[in-house]
Input
Amino acid sequence: MIATTQHQSLLSRLFGARETGLVLIIMVLFLAMTFASPHFLTWTNMRAMAMAFSVEAIVVVGMTILLISGGIDLSVGSVTALAMVIAGLLFLAGVNPWIASLIAIAACAGIGAIMGFFVTVVGLHHFIVTLAAMVIARGLCLLGTGGRPLGLFELPDSFKWIGIGSIGPIPVAIVVFLVTVVVFDFLLRRTTAFRKVFYTGSNERAAAYSGIRTKRVLFLTTMLCSTLCGVAGIIYMARFGSAQPTFGVGMELNVIAAAVIGGASLSGGKGSILGAILGAVLLSLVSSSLALLNVSVYWQDIIRGSILLAAVTFDHYLVKRRAAGGRA
Amino acid sequence: MIATTQHQSLLSRLFGARETGLVLIIMVLFLAMTFASPHFLTWTNMRAMAMAFSVEAIVVVGMTILLISGGIDLSVGSVTALAMVIAGLLFLAGVNPWIASLIAIAACAGIGAIMGFFVTVVGLHHFIVTLAAMVIARGLCLLGTGGRPLGLFELPDSFKWIGIGSIGPIPVAIVVFLVTVVVFDFLLRRTTAFRKVFYTGSNERAAAYSGIRTKRVLFLTTMLCSTLCGVAGIIYMARFGSAQPTFGVGMELNVIAAAVIGGASLSGGKGSILGAILGAVLLSLVSSSLALLNVSVYWQDIIRGSILLAAVTFDHYLVKRRAAGGRA
Amino acid sequence: AQDTLRCEPGETYVMNVMVMGHPYWVPVFQGFKQAAEAFGCEAVFSGTPDYDITKQIASFEQDLVTSPKGILLHPMQADPFIDPINRAVDAGISVTTFAADSPKSKRTAYITSDNLAEAKFAAEEIVKTVGDSAEYAVLENPGQSNHDLRVTALIAYMEKNYPNMKLVGRQATNQDPNAAFTAVSAMLQANPNLAALWIPESGSAEGAVAAAKAASKKPMIIHADISPTTLEEIKAGNIHMALNPNQGIQGFVGFMNTFLGAHPDAIDPFNDYKTAGYNPMQIPFVDNGFAVITKENAESFVLEKYMEGRN
Amino acid sequence: MVIMSPEPLLQLRDISKSFGAVRALRSGQLELRAGEIHALAGENGAGKSTLMNIVDGILQPDAGEILIDGQPVSVDSPAVAQGLGIGFVHQEIALCPEISVAENIFMARTAQSRRRLMEGHALVTAAQEVLAPLAYIDPRLPAGALSISQQQLVEIAKALTLNCRILIFDEPTAALTEHEAQKLFSIMRDLAARGIGIIYISHRMAEIFENCQRVTVMRDGQHVMTADTSDVTPADVVNAMVGRKLDTLYPPKLSGPRQAEILRVENASGHCFRDVSFSVYRGEILGFGGLIGAGRTEIARGITRLEGDAKACVHLEGEPVTLRDYADCISKGVVYLSEDRKGDGVFLDLSIAANVSALDLRRVAGRFGVIDKRREAGMAQEIGETLRLKAASMAHRVASLSGGNQQKVALAKLLAVHPRLIFLDEPTRGVDVGAKAEIHAILRNLAEQGVGIVVISSEMPELIGLCDRVLVVSEGYLTGELSGEDLTEKNIMTLAAPGAGAGKRT
Ligand SMILES: Nc1ncnc2c1ncn2[C@@H]1O[C@H](COP(=O)(O)OP(=O)(O)OP(=O)(O)O)[C@@H](O)[C@H]1O
Ligand SMILES: Nc1ncnc2c1ncn2[C@@H]1O[C@H](COP(=O)(O)OP(=O)(O)OP(=O)(O)O)[C@@H](O)[C@H]1O
Ligand SMILES: [Mg+2]
Ligand SMILES: [Mg+2]
Output
């Protein structure tokens, strides 16, 4: 997907060769749902569906970049919750909510830096470091709140706006998500700084031999992922008007799954923001559709898992066929 | 760890060079706890602690072998639950519990085979396949039970014996665990069949170029892991006298963490049963100790995460120093 | 004012919950359905299978898309639901909360079993059984509000009324029997005189009994909610008793409140609703009560038996 | 004539480095002048790569000094080395497989430059320009899709894009054919003429004496001698390397009539080759020659079922056989040595012993498939000794070995199963003169014992010196067979040239 490709159809140019399969799958599901439920293709439903994944998608962006660099982060759920808790506590202590949010995001960046330290300087594996961070951050959430959600109904409307406000007909949260995606997709594809992320993840030795400070790259991607968790946590807080210490349990699997469906590899060097977001859209679309069709809960998981497997298999065949069908 | 090691101290011979660090850490914690609590070093407490991790440790064995072969399995928790549910439903339908258990274990092996198929024949990544399987197996649990735990109080005592009985002073579950560990540790270290697991995980192409049918190896390790989940599920069922459709949520992280602490690598080719079990012991020891000392809930996670990180860091330094200090 | 309380054909009521697969909802929805049938209405069970607030909100908003008359909602968290509930109410949908509340929203009623009352009952039962100067311990599940309330209320009640009762253990086991096994094993080791255990849910209770049996000790175990295993243990005398919210009534009355909220024309109360413009059907809090389950009546609480012939 | 600066460009003084108990370098010394091509020679494991890794900042020396233009410098990382104008073509290929060739080539420049945005098409054009003198490779392909030799060329191209004053080549020609090697030498001479100092590591004496002005020899981590190539003979260099007299002659060739047929392949067609038919006879060593990418590797892999769905009619010792997969091949005694030792030749993270026994574990197992570790180590030791494998113990990870010694492990793996027929793809890649002669002797010996031997080699002297008969491949077709008097470099080149097989195409 990295090769500079010039003679391509408009469609594959729009979506990058790698993502066409996912787009197809999503379009099929979309059409099927439009026929299956009269409520599906309504503005409200679209809005609800978009809101359901737009904030998490910010975390997906961070995770994808981290995966490309060869890392992984299991702590995303607890760090997101911690951002809510820190900002919430500060706000309750009288700090201006914007400043409180900045401090919370900085704290998340700090956690990312500590994880990055253990990974790059000490030399431990991302998996184990972020697992420990996941447990510790959850503990901090509990400690800070006594396990009870913080009610932040008093947050000023100007602040809540980022969670529940709209710009024209589009919710602010979705705008933030779109901007994040577009910006990072561009950065990752086009800037030299982010290309180093690919190099590091693809072959750390080769990158290091080319004078890339791979440890710094890994450190920064680790930190970036945590920072974006912080941002997501703040938007959640504005949206929910509360800070929940138990928020985001199990989020990591969902987020990693989205990135992997979108073409990221757990061994690094591969992946794209657009693909990962399409992965998140797919997962979210399936969940929302099952809920809308009022499928029995006892069947939902089975159907969800099967669609996931079928989609990935189909996509895999498309990618393989494209690879076999020559690359001009 | 495959290295033929001949001139070693008794300790490192007992525990394999790689595991000495972990043994040290566990011994230090053990001593500290002995001083900290008069109740720690009692037969009953030791027994209870051993019971707490012995069944999960069977899953750890399967996961470690799978990790060594280069795979990973996120479905262990739901597959374990599914084994309970299948055996439980069959028993309630009048099937002899032993036969029901065999059928349930076979069903788990079947799930492993399906996952193995998607990984080796279709060519998908373990992560995404086992994630889908995790969701589907959980759905099957819900479907089979309607979400309600199955009360299996009526299980005959002869069957419950495997969960709560004792052989002499030693609980049967611990005996089963010890036998599993000893057997698989031996197999993995010494037999040709399991050596191929190392080859496959270390460098799949080189293994294929050595005439090893690597897909078959991956298929079998995937299946083995699920089968051992089945065994663990049956023992849990006998122990708790119930089958819980929601059992084992989040188990995968714990199990993978144990293996990784014990030296397994997520990129395959490395790991040992003994190390993984020591990892499980460490995790369990920390949890039990915090409970015994009645540490505040709000602090427990923080302490647990920090000890985990400290232990891994310490172990890492020991391994590094040993590597630097010559390996003659 | 409407003269009969009946649904129009196709009039639908939704019960929306989180973790839909949890057995707790089963008898609640049975009550909900029974009431719906009595009023000639359609009943739909919805929500999210996950423990995920974002997904529950999405499912709630999708319920709104299908324009039901009312929703009986178990909000996973209070504040995040304020805005969605208010939007539903503004759109003319009646919303009642149950088992967990969103007090600052415009929901018309909240129906629950009183966790404080459960805690108080449990405390008194403990004191009655083991005396007022004994050691006791609790298991908990930090972050889940009703479980939290059950635990903190019991501790507070003990401190206030029975200062000689000593809290010797407090462990988070998060509904996991294996974690409960570990925690209770340790507690029994550390506190040989541990006399009683209060557990806010059934999953941990299963692990606790297993631990007590393994340690050959018999502390008094009292817990909230039930599962088939804890029922059997109650019958076998290994668990002292269980306190179970009256789920059927919760669902039935929950429906009635939702229904009434959707048919306010039937009510013309003596207050200012007409001038202030709010729904006359307003009840801050309805207590559906709880059942005390002991050896004697355990048989009536076997969900399998109850569910035979229903779905 | 280049004007010499008073100070040498690069000086290495008394550099030492240990890996645990292994003393890789005791006193590494080297002096490189601007504008010279300086050869660095030594046996496998002598410490050449280690010394160069220290110059490039990949490894930190335990002691010693690096001086550039007479000024002591400390090189902490490859990034620093680049800043000092040092470029390095590594012995082990390290490319990013998912990334395009163009980006791989300009990776270092990307890392250094202040540009914020990636160049688009300009990068591809620039890459094409750099590659053009070496070979035709589409710069848009991901590097992982290239063959090993093409990857080697990309590695070289990478180093050429740097603005360096000091350029290190660590066995760049090990995977190249004569043809590409000559192109490389001409580039090297151009660079030297512009005042760049080049360190050239190779085990091929001919190359050293043709292209280098001076040669430094190392043995056991120590500097042994430095001399002008005009003042010494190849024999002197070899003597200095191994510390004893060595006859580097090739073993005598087969004499007498053609013996029984071991292997017959008829009409083999596959991914990159068509209608290939040949036979291997008892006692002979059959060679495969050709240019880079000609398809020799593909032929061997196709026949041994390692890759693709090649169709071939195969007879083993007269019997028609169906080879289902490579495991089946091994069980029938047919084995293949890969040209890509790091990618699919050895298990870097496993011990030498575990590597050597990988092809047939039954040889080291007792009853019930229980591995006898002592027997395993013993077997590795024994084969290792015949191949002059330099390792402290068979328990060491292969990753800790020098490149040439890794190659010996890969070879030992195959020899351990006592095969009936061996395909060797670049068997002596990176192996030093002494060991190479040893390996050649072993191969000849095996051939005499009746083992069928097929050698694919890009090293012309090896093909000519070792093989009794050479088949030349060009663009996937067999274009000719040479033996006896006809077996000359010129003839091979003629047959190998693109288009040579045109007549055979139907
Ligand atoms: N990472 C390492 N760990 C342990 N030993 C090492 C390591 N790297 C190199 N060595 C040892 O250092 C010595 C020198 O190796 P080096 O790679 O420099 O040899 P070389 O001269 O380049 O040989 P070759 O011609 O085979 O490439 C060898 O004995 C090798 O085993
Ligand atoms: N992994 C691969 N993916 C795609 N194409 C390949 C791959 N390996 C080789 N090729 C292509 O197959 C053709 C034949 O290559 P092969 O390696 O068989 O040639 P060779 O004669 O052994 O030469 P050399 O090994 O010196 O390159 C070449 O065009 C090469 O680019
Ligand atoms: Mg070398
Ligand atoms: Mg080749």
